[in-house]
Specification:
By secondary structure, the protein is α+β, with helices and mostly antiparallel strands. It has 2 domains: 12-45 and 257-284, no CATH class; 50-245, 2-Layer Sandwich (Bacterial polysaccharide co-polymerase-like), CATH 3.30.1890. Helices cover 61% and strands 10% of the residues. It contains 12 helices and 6 strands. The chain has helices spanning 12-23, 25-45, 61-64, 67-72, 74-80, 88-97, 100-110, 113-116, 139-149, 170-209, 213-235, 258-284, and strands at residues 50-58, 121-122, 127-128, 150-154, 161-167, 241-245. It has a 4-stranded antiparallel β-sheet with strand order 4-5-1-6. Strands 2-3 form a two-stranded antiparallel sheet. It is elongated, with a radius of gyration of 32 Å. The two termini are 41 Å apart.
Length: 287
């Protein structure tokens, strides 16, 4: 028997694609170089970003010692406006941390509008560059800008919360993260103290109106619990959010390194160039 040699021939389709690329190789090189050079220039002038992160745990009603009493007199506590759910304070603390109210207060206390909108602020004159009220940043715009640099992430397994601030200055990033948590605790304490005063006043009034001893005892227990909550809130600086790991000044930027940006520009330019070449070939009717 005679053995016949099997000759592997290149796929004509692949050969055709290679010919198209070789035919317009100059265009591919030019486009790739433009993208690479552009990404390099952008990476060179890109402002480094640093992330300051603080890890906290949310303190619940059970940890404050009020969960058992609230469950025992839940119906009566609800009438008085007292929280009966152990998870309620947890959700309220996280909501307050990310609320527009707290963000605007933080911006006001630290005078951050000029910092968040530096292009519109004249440092030498100490005023806004424009006099147009529509262009002058407001607290509402400040809240929108601050949301872009703030991140609140909760680990579903440990339920620990990480509050992060991303900013060009690493010291400011760490300070803002710590101060934001501190302001949340302060506002939570003040709200609890105000609520406790209102609840105690209401419960005292109800106790004076009723002659039923069991109801008076229940109201007395609720008032005692409110006094305890007020004392805990007044003497605990970490009433809502307990700091597990405070933010420290980051030493390395969180933004992408320049090498990765340039490499991404190279491959992106190569892809766009090849796509344009094949598109031109299809228009010319090439195969």
């Amino acid at each position: 028997m005679n053995d016949t040699a099997t000759i592997t021939r290149p796929d004509p389709k692949l050969k055709s694609l290679a010919e198209i690329l070789l035919q317009d190789r100059r265009l591919i090189i030019v486009i790739t170089c433009i993208f690479t050079l552009g990404s390099g220039v952008g990476a060179y002038f890109q402002q480094k970003q640093y992330k300051g992160s603080v890890q906290v745990s949310v303190v619940t009603d059970e940890q404050h010692g009020g969960g058992a009493l609230m469950s025992q007199f839940g119906a009566l506590a609800s009438l008085a406006g007292v929280n009966v759910g152990g998870q309620s304070q947890k959700f309220e603390a996280l909501a307050l941390l990310q609320s527009r109210f707290l963000t605007e207060m933080f911006i006001q206390q630290n005078n951050l509008l000029p910092v968040l909108f530096p292009k519109l602020w004249d440092k030498k004159a100490g005023r806004w560059i424009t006099n147009d009220p529509k262009q002058i940043p407001t607290l509402w715009k400040g809240d929108a800008a601050f949301k872009k640099i703030r991140s609140v992430v909760q680990d579903p397994k440990t339920e620990l919360v990480t509050v992060s601030i991303t900013w060009p200055d690493p010291v400011i990033a760490a300070n803002w993260a710590n101060e934001l948590v501190a302001l949340t605790n302060k506002q939570s304490r003040e709200r609890v103290l105000a609520d406790s005063d209102r609840h105690i006043e209401y419960l005292r009034g109800q106790a004076e109106r009723t002659q039923l001893v069991p109801v008076q005892e229940a109201l007395s227990n609720l008032m005692e619990n409110e006094y305890k909550q007020a004392m805990l809130a007044g003497g605990n600086s970490e009433y809502a959010l307990k700091v597990i790991d405070p933010a420290v000044t980051p030493e390395s930027p969180s933004s992408l390194r320049r090498g990765f940006i340039v490499l991404g520009g190279f491959f992106g330019g190569l892809f766009v160039a090849c796509f344009m070449v094949f598109l031109r070939a299809s228009w010319r009717g090439e195969r």
